[in-house]
Amino acid sequence: MIVVMRHDAEQEQIEAIRHRLIDEGFQVHLSQGVERTIIGVIGENTERVFAVSSMAGVEQVVPVHRPYKLVSREFHPDDSIINIGKVPVGGKRVIVMAGPCAVESHDQVMQAAEVVQQLGLSVLRGGAYKPRTSPYSFQGMRVDGLKILAEARDRYGLMIITEAVDHESLQQVVEWADVVQIGARNMQNYELLKAVGQTEKPVLLKRGFASTIDEWLQAAEYIVAHGNPNVILCERGIRTYESKTRNTLDLSAIPVIKELSHLPVVIDPSHSTGHWNWVAPMARAAVAAGADGLIIEAHPNPAEALSDGPQSLSLPHLAELVHSLRALAEVVGRTL
Ligand code: PEP
Ligand code: MN
Fold first, then answer.
1. Is residue 321 situated within a structural domain?
2. What CA–CA distance (Å, rounded) separates 280 from 139?
3. Which 8-state DSSP code applies to residue 34?
4. What are 244-257's pLDDT values in tens digits?
5. Ligand 2 center from residue 236 Cα (angstroms)
6. How far is CA 196 from CA 18, 19, 65, 140, 260, in A?
7. In this structure, what CATH number is given to the domain that contains residue 7?
8. pLDDT of residue 33
9. If you measure from the C-alpha of residue 302 to the centroid of ligand 2, how many angstroms do you get, rounded to a whole number?
10. Cβ distance 263 to 303 under 8 Å?
């Protein structure tokens, strides 16, 4: 249920309603927009919320029938901007996060970070805990990998994004990184979603490869309902019958999410295509379709990569792509 306040509602009137709803045992979330304040109300028997319709300052009480509330456009009509340090995601600027799939060595990360910085990008990616399909594949450098990322952050003035795969790694990632990535395989790990909801770090929530948009938005709702509003959604391809690409990039998720939710959407053209040569066209298509950002795998030596080499751009190819994206961003009214 949402309580839409009149545009001229006073702060005391908003507070009076908030307190009344809390006293009645509801969970209350305020969304203070440019135009008006909206109060999201969650709990049992929400029909009781209609009782506040007659209180001063209320315009109307509207039921939200969707299974997600706090991440819905109804609750927050303006686009949300999620700040990664000083880097805003969801505004005019398209944010490109780039770096290797996995942290493999000090040298590898520093080489990638130097190029990411020189290209004017502000977020470095790199997995320290790797959820690999085969137990015999490289599993990641864990805390040692996080320390390398943190050193790159300090040396090159970059923000760091890295994946947490369970409660233990989450604690470490929160300590060392700027954005917590929740991977496709964990999109429905509800206990992990609750745990990341109890932190204040921005979260990049990837879409599960067999998840619908509604399931994905409900996963985001878990994080926000547990107290962390800083969620960025990431489409990384879904599994279909097509086998030429690693996954099928669902670009239509961009306009669909924009309609249903206020959260920013980032596209991962690397895991969706699975092949470096198809990354640039899909990255450009994503920007043209209104994506708020991209997360791209790039490696100083893709042929030697311990994880996802075939889909990783070389650093010169990353530079070429960023230049073309800058020109394109301008055409669609964005900056990069
Ligand atoms: C990754 O970003 O390296 C990764 C494992 O992604 P996904 O969860 O989308 O497979
Ligand atoms: Mn990868």
1. yes
2. 27
3. S
4. 999 999 999 999 99
5. 10
6. 26, 27, 26, 21, 23
7. 3.30.70.1140
8. 82
9. 12
10. no
Q: Is 157 helix (H, G, I), strand (E, B) or coil?
A: coil
Atom number in ligand 1 closest to CA 207: 9
Task: Judge if 307 and 243 occupy the same domain.
Answer: yes
Tens of pLDDT, residue by residue over 301-311, are 999 999 999 99
Q: Evaluate whether residue 255 is within a structural domain.
A: yes
CB 271 within 8 A of CB 316: no
C-alpha to C-alpha distances, 54 to 31, 58, 74, 187, nearest whole angstrom: 20, 7, 21, 41
Same domain, 263 and 138: yes
Give the number of C-alpha atoms closer than 13 A to the C-alpha of residue 314, restricted to the C-beta side. 6
d(CA 296, CA 328): 17
Strands 179-182 and 203-206: parallel
**In this structure, which ligand is nearest to the CA of 237?**
1
The span from the CA of 199 to the CA of 146, in Å, is 18
Asked if 138 and 52 sit in the same domain, the reply is no
Residue 31 CA to residue 136 CA, distance in Å, equals: 47
The atom of ligand 1 lying closest to the CA of 102 is 3
Give the Cα separation of 70 and 54 in Å (integer). Answer: 24
pLDDT in tens, 67-105: 999 999 999 999 999 999 999 999 999 999 999 999 999
The one-character DSSP state at 237 is: -
Six token digits for residue 323: 């230049």
